[in-house]
Amino acid sequence: MAGPEPTTGPLTPEELQLATRNRGMPLEALRYDTTPVGLHYLLVHFDIPALDAASWRLLVGGNVEHELSLTLDDIRARPRQALSVTLECAGNGRARLLPRPVSQPWLNEAVGTAEWTGTPLAGVLGEAGLKPDTVELVFTGADHGIEKGYEHDYARSLTPADAMRPEVLLAYEMNGRPLEPQHGFPLRLLVPGWYGMTHVKWLMRIEAIREPFDGYQQRVAYWYKRDADDPGEPVSRILPRALMIPPGFPDFLTRQRTVERGRVEIIGRAWSGHAPIAQVEFGVDGAWIAASIEKSVGAFAWCRWSATWDAAPGEHILSCRATDATGNRQPTAQPWNYQGMGNNLIQAVHVRVR
Ligand SMILES: Nc1nc2c(c(=O)[nH]1)N[C@H]1C(S)=C(S)[C@@H](COP(=O)(O)O)O[C@H]1N2
Ligand SMILES: [Mo]
Hints:
By secondary structure, this protein is mostly beta strands. It contains five helices and 22 strands. It has two domains: about 15-235, Sulfite Oxidase, Chain A, domain 2 (Alpha-Beta Complex), CATH 3.90.420.10; about 240-354, Immunoglobulin-like (Sandwich), CATH 2.60.40.
């Protein structure tokens, strides 16, 4: 069953229903190195499952030498690692595309950075012993539902090479506390640098398989496609993006900003899942200057940037754009695709200076 085609129509009640279940990070929270848990963005495809930590087990099986069944205490007793990681939904920016792919209607704000603590996945996979003809590992969550007619447990796969990277964690803490129910309690996968869909929450099973995984969230969803028939390219790592804290104060309904004239310190964050951020530019009405960048708190975490603006009275459009060390730069024209993936179009903030 196909879903609705991209539309130029008004937001539908179904999109609004998704938008109120999920939530973005208010952009003023870009001020924090580590996003408070309650301000971190949230995306839950189906229902938040009710899991009991005492009876929960992580099963590791399929094409392995030794099947494992691990309790939460078993996992917590393994080598511990904490990493500061920026997560972003691959659908961030979708609602600004025209026509608009119909799904969770993100604008700019599907991002957050947390300190995640867990144990390296490589250790657990090493103990299970992947057989040499393993092609992929499938990570399955406890949540279940129907998407575009396909009934399934939420599941995503990775190649052994991607899964064995040292920064990939089985995470049981977020900002120093057990995961909240909505963020995957008791355990989630964390694949630093990759878009959000990879970080499977409420993890129940890891299965080694000998064929590429063809589950819905892997085969159908999360592809860069021109249209319904384009085979496309799979979505993986996060494209570069910079966002600023909108300066001044907002109008309640329109969010239009009012700023006092004179020197204004503009602050924001920038990140990329491909490489460190090499440059951030700040733009006023289309003229760009270099912003200064601070060192990020971790290889997979956003960095803070700032620029000084001498605000002259009138209406202005403020923008920012990031370039990473591989030379990827945010586009100034919308990178349209059929599922609304990876729209890292530069941010534009309308301000009135008085
Ligand atoms: N089991 C499961 N894992 C999931 C999801 C889900 O719906 N079910 N959503 C994914 C998507 S699309 C994103 S963007 C991130 C969001 O993580 P967060 O809600 O902790 O910010 O979780 C991912 N992991
Ligand atoms: Mo997502």
